[in-house]
Amino acid sequence: MEKVGIVGVGMHRFGKFPDLGLTEMGIEACVQALLDSGLDKKRIGVCAVGNVGGGMVVGQKVLAELGLAGIPLINVENACASASTALHVAWSLVASGCYGAALALGLEQMSRTIEGTIPLGTDSLELQMGMMMPGKFALVARKHMELYGTTLKQLAAVSVKNHHHGVLNPFAQYRKEFTIEQVLGSPVIADPLTLLQCSPTGDGAAAAVLCNVREAAGVSQPPVWIEASVLTSGTYETGPRDVTSYDQTRRAAAAAYEISGCGPEDIDVIEVHDGFTISEILHSEDLGFFPKGEGGPAAESGATSIGGKIPINPSGGLVSRGHPIGATGLAQVAELVWQLRGQAGQRQVDGANIGLAHCMGGLVQGLDAAACTVHILKR
Amino acid sequence: MEKVGIVGVGMHRFGKFPDLGLTEMGIEACVQALLDSGLDKKRIGVCAVGNVGGGMVVGQKVLAELGLAGIPLINVENACASASTALHVAWSLVASGCYGAALALGLEQMSRTIEGTIPLGTDSLELQMGMMMPGKFALVARKHMELYGTTLKQLAAVSVKNHHHGVLNPFAQYRKEFTIEQVLGSPVIADPLTLLQCSPTGDGAAAAVLCNVREAAGVSQPPVWIEASVLTSGTYETGPRDVTSYDQTRRAAAAAYEISGCGPEDIDVIEVHDGFTISEILHSEDLGFFPKGEGGPAAESGATSIGGKIPINPSGGLVSRGHPIGATGLAQVAELVWQLRGQAGQRQVDGANIGLAHCMGGLVQGLDAAACTVHILKR
Question: What is the pTM of this model?
Answer without folding.
Answer: 0.95
